[in-house]
Design goal:
CATH superfamily of chain B: MetI-like
Number of domains of chain A: 2
Structural class of chain A: alpha/beta
Helix content of chain A: 25-40%
Distance between the termini of chain A: 69 Å
Oligomer: heterotrimer
CATH architecture of chain B: Orthogonal Bundle
Largest sheet of chain B: 2 strands, antiparallel
Order of helices and strands of chain B: HHHHHHHHHEEHH
Structural class of chain B: mainly alpha
Number of strands of chain A: 13
Radius of gyration of chain B: 25 Å
CATH superfamily of the largest domain in chain A: Periplasmic binding protein-like II
Helix content of chain B: over 70%
Strand content of chain B: under 5%
CATH class of the largest domain in chain A: Alpha Beta
Chains: A alpha/beta (331), B mainly alpha (309), C mainly alpha (294)
Number of helices of chain A: 14
Number of domains of chain B: 1
Shape of chain A: globular
CATH topology of chain B: MetI-like fold
Strand content of chain A: 15-25%
Number of helices of chain B: 11
Strand order of the largest sheet of chain B: 1-2
CATH class of chain B: Mainly Alpha
Largest interface: B-C, 88 and 82 residues
Radius of gyration of chain A: 23 Å
Shape of chain B: flat
Largest sheet of chain A: 9 strands, mixed
Order of helices and strands of chain A: HHHHHEHEEEHEEEHEHHEHEHEHEEH
Distance between the termini of chain B: 36 Å
CATH topology of the largest domain in chain A: D-Maltodextrin-Binding Protein, domain 2
Chain lengths: 331, 309, 294
């Protein structure tokens, strides 16, 4: 009886706080940066057919007219990330070390998020933020900046005008024999069917090897590595398992660095590396296959009025000791 | 007007109280501080839980409980099954060891012996070690050295070390609460030590032990840091095909528990990300209900025990 | 007849002895576990620390694994700052709440409030982290719109402060309840108000228990991982202010352990060694206080 009373009171208190807590964020003066974080249910029901609606209404928001000010929240990935590796090479955010080798020189005080999804989330929720992600993972909850006036689209990557692109590689151990199951899965990725998925997911296919023919192999294939490739790999896996139910694909999401190590160690069959595989890594015993090309999109919050940056701007924003730390300093 | 005796002593009319506060403003400040703290804590819990329930409950849909995880349904069912498997495995390892050590500590060890002191210190240390250190230990020993890769069994072994101090401590308390009279009576009737423990002491201590075991289940279900590098984050129940061609559970495979499932949904959302966050809210509600329910069950049993004694 | 009886007795004695050995072995498992954890963590971490150089490792201000520079000073300071922040946020509220629960609230309200505290204790840390990025970070940023983001030291401190609340409340409450009633009554009899009696006689008498609760809270805060990595920003720098990005020792391990190899991996385990030493010191303090009260 008393328990019942307590629980009723508890629920009452909860409902009360609901009433009290939800309007609270709406009262905040900078309401402009809230919609993305608090009103997430709004875009949640948008399926692909609604996609054009949101970009169309973005220019109408009043935030568009006022230029953005304040500190830039520079968001980067962790060291092992392939996207980071490709990003620093493409924008030359590097410094020569003592041996004359160019090494990563991203701001020490930049925020570190250790997955593509975390960068997306951080930029979605923060008007001040800038980040970079795989073009294939881009959606309308964030805004991709034009680089030197060129839109970040798969088409522009394909025709060569958007130069911020890198290959998606899968690596296998060259010192041991690849299992039949893993070979079959790799055949599928490179086949017409596999590359069709790659195109459908807006990555750039470099041609296929013909129709997929199922082998008699069975077993489990372990795939590990880049969080940029794994969304695509999940889709390929689902299509593959629908065709070939004898083989199970296990995808472990980490980053490119782990993809290389796990393959060399033999703890996975196929590693995912979202950048060029380095010479010293190939020497450890890796066979490299490029499965497609993916762009890197530099993203900002949808309420950020900025739409176009130069490569030099990006370098100044990201390089340790770079000159741009506030939004008003751009351009 | 009938007031119970105790109240009548402490009862101070409002007027006197107000006068007292005017005379001692510090007392009023202290009172307000204390009430303020209570309001903050209760409000905080209400906001956190309320936010979770409001955002999570509407998104609990049947497709979240489909047997197979896909990127379209984001099902938490495999994660729930993995949680069950890992918890069961850990209990199978930790409960006997925990109960046996408690029996040794309470029934066999001489008071003040060196060994007991060392065991006390180590269990205390063990209970203070952060879960990420357990995770690293599991990574070095189970993942890298023994099982060569993430595995359910590696995760279960890591967790069983982690909950060992909880089980030892609660069992110890339960055993100590058994009156010595019972033991003496049993000895007096000619029963041996082992028989006394198994037939007399343990049955009496069962509720206390159970409360401890359930508490440790709650800890395991909510754990992430110790599992991320040991059990891994594969979104399915690990299976393999045995030599007869049957698909069987494979504990040397990787599989994520419910807490890790939530972690992965938030860590690696794919576009459109909102779908992942909605699923994450729903998963968080289920996880919370599970953990809080388990904890409540444990304290309920413990309270029953106290009232029985 | 006599013979069989003797054998059964023998078997029984044997069984007794065997079980005693089994129990003793089981009791030694926890010793073994602690030993193994120490050995493996230290064996992997210490050589790396030695290779990097103890001072360079502990006091180096730069953490750049790709350039083979491993200084964890920012992370040590980050952990200490975040824990200090958690104490500032959690301890006053926690102790006041404990006083309220033990000495101020009527039984009927206590029955309602107690489950709230239990609820707070039951929320898994990954759920805290999730709530942190969904509620706390945007909220903080809305108060400081000119700052770069809502995540950072402040968010981490508040997050950890909330997480240590139940520990502090529960342990302090039982410490306050354990104070003999005549302390309170004596004070009342001398004419002190209820509040004065509680705050100036009962609470001081419970101070070692309250201190123990704070130390337990510190242990929990410094070892917490999952709730921090999503709200702290994770830049490996010594935080310059409340809104500055911060990386704790625990998040350093979780962020990079997934892909680290070679010296980098061992340097991360070295970070765990430092964390472990901190925890051991905290444990020692705790048991010293506990022994002091006995």
């Amino acid at each position: 009886m008393r328990k019942l009373l307590t629980s009723i009171l508890l629920i009452l208190a909860l409902t009360l706080t609901f009433a009290a807590c939800d309007p609270a964020p709406a009262n905040d003066p900078p309401a402009a940066n809230n919609p993305t974080t608090n009103d997430t249910p709004a875009p949640s029901n948008n399926t692909t057919n609604e996609t054009p609606a949101t970009p169309a209404e973005t220019p109408v928001t009043p935030a568009e007219t006022t230029p953005i000010t304040g500190a830039i929240n520079v968001i980067s990935r962790e060291d092992g990330s392939g996207t980071r590796g490709a990003f620093v090479e493409l924008f030359d955010v590097r410094i020569e070390n003592a041996e004359g080798r160019k090494v990563d020189d991203i701001r020490q005080d930049s925020d570190i998020q250790n997955s593509t999804g975390q960068v997306l989330t951080a930029v979605q929720g923060n008007k001040q933020a800038i980040g970079y992600i795989s073009l294939g993972s881009l959606d309308n909850t964030v805004k991709a900046l034009k680089i030197e006036g060129v839109d970040a689209t798969p088409e522009n990557v394909l025709n060569g005008t958007y130069s911020i692109a890198r290959p998606f590689n899968i690596v296998t151990n060259s010192n041991s024999v690849l299992s039949e199951a893993a070979q079959d899965f790799m055949n599928f990725i490179m086949s017409d069917e596999g590359q069709a998925i790659i195109k459908a997911e807006k990555y750039i296919s470099q041609g296929s090897t013909g129709a997929y023919t199922m082998s008699s192999a069975s077993g489990t294939v372990k795939v590990e590595g880049s969080s940029s490739i794994s969304p695509l790999m999940e889709k390929i896996k689902e299509a593959y398992e629908a065709i070939n139910s004898n083989i199970k694909i296990e995808i472990q999401t980490n980053d490119s660095g782990r993809g290389v190590t796990a393959t060399v160690e033999g703890s996975c069959d196929i590693g995912m590396v979202s950048r060029e595989v380095r010479a010293e890594e190939v020497e450890q015993g890796l066979d490299v296959t490029a499965i497609c090309i993916d762009g890197i999109a530099v993203i900002v919050n949808v309420d950020n009025p900025l739409s176009d940056v130069t490569k030099a701007d990006i370098k100044e924003i990201y390089q340790d000791g770079g000159s741009i730390t506030r939004w008003e300093e751009i351009g | 007007m009938t007031i119970s005796k105790k109240e009548s002593i402490n009862f101070i009319p409002l007027k006197t109280r107000v006068r007292g506060y005017i005379k001692h403003p510090l007392s009023l400040v202290l009172l307000l501080l204390v009430i303020g703290a209570a309001v903050i804590v209760v409000g905080l819990v209400a906001i956190l839980i309320g936010h979770l329930l409001i955002k999570g409950v509407p998104h609990i849909k049947p497709e979240l409980f489909e047997w197979k995880y896909t990127t379209t349904n984001l099902s938490m069912m495999p994660a729930i099954i993995n949680t069950l498997i890992i918890t069961l495995l850990s209990l199978v390892i930790a409960v006997p060891i925990g109960i046996f050590s408690a029996i040794y500590l309470v029934e066999y060890a001489k008071k003040g012996s060196k060994l007991v002191a060392i065991i006390r210190i180590t269990t205390e240390t063990l209970s203070g070690i952060p879960s990420i250190v357990f995770g690293l230990f599991g990574l070095i020993v189970f993942t890298t050295m023994i099982f060569k890769g993430y595995s359910i069994i590696g995760g279960a072994l890591t967790l069983s070390i982690m909950v060992l101090p909880i089980i030892i401590r609660t069992t110890e308390e339960a055993l100590m609460s058994v009156p010595d009279l019972f033991r003496e009576g049993s000895f007096g009737l000619g029963a041996g030590k082992l028989r006394t423990i198994v037939r007399i002491v343990l049955p009496y201590a069962v509720p206390g032990i159970l409360a401890g075991v359930i508490l440790s289940i709650g800890r395991m279900v909510g754990e992430t840091a110790a599992l991320i590098f040991t059990a891994g984050t594969i979104a399915g129940v690990p299976t393999s095909v045995n030599r007869f061609g049957h698909t069987v559970l494979d504990v040397t495979g990787s599989g994520r528990t419910l807490a890790l499932h939530l972690f992965e949904l938030v860590q690696n959302p794919q576009t459109p990300t909102d779908r992942y966050f909605n699923a994450a809210y729903a998963t968080a509600v289920v996880l919370l209900v599970l953990v809080v329910g388990i904890n409540a069950l444990s304290s309920f049993i413990a309270r029953r025990l106290i009232s029985k004694v | 007849m006599y013979n069989t009886n003797e054998t059964t007795l023998k078997i029984r004695a044997l069984r007794e002895a065997a079980m005693k050995i089994l129990f003793t072995i089981a009791a030694c498992v926890s010793i073994l576990a602690v030993l193994l954890i120490c050995v493996f963590i230290f064996a992997n971490g210490i050589p790396a620390i030695a290779e990097i150089g103890v001072t360079k490792f502990l006091f180096g201000r730069t953490w750049k694994p790709n350039a083979d520079i491993y200084g964890i000073f920012p992370m040590i300071i980050g952990s200490l700052y975040a824990t200090a922040g958690a104490i500032v946020v959690g301890v006053p509220i926690g102790i006041l709440m404990a006083i309220f629960m033990a000495r101020f609230c009527p039984k009927s309200i206590y029955k309602i409030i107690k489950p709230f505290v239990e609820l707070l204790a039951g929320i898994p840390s990954v759920v805290y982290g999730f709530l942190g990025i969904r509620i706390l970070v945007p909220l903080i940023h809305s108060f400081f719109p000119e700052e770069k983001s809502g995540s950072g030291l402040l968010a981490a401190s508040i997050m950890l402060g909330i997480m240590i609340l139940p520990t502090i409340i529960n342990v302090s409450e039982s410490a306050i309840r354990a104070v003999p009633e005549n302390y309170y009554e004596g004070s009342l009899a001398l004419g002190a108000t209820h509040e004065r009696s509680v705050f100036f006689t009962v609470v001081p008498a419970a101070r070692s228990g309250i201190l123990a609760s704070v130390i337990l809270g510190v242990g929990r805060a410094i070892g917490e991982t999952m709730a921090v990595i999503w709200v702290a920003g994770n830049a490996p720098i010594v935080p310059k202010g409340l809104m500055s990005s911060v990386r704790t020792m625990t998040s350093n391990v979780v962020l990079e352990m997934g892909y680290a190899t070679g010296l980098h991996r061992d340097a991360l385990i070295g970070t765990a060694v430092v964390l472990f030493v901190f925890i051991l010191i905290i444990n020692l303090c705790f048991s010293a206080i506990k022994r002091g009260t006995k």
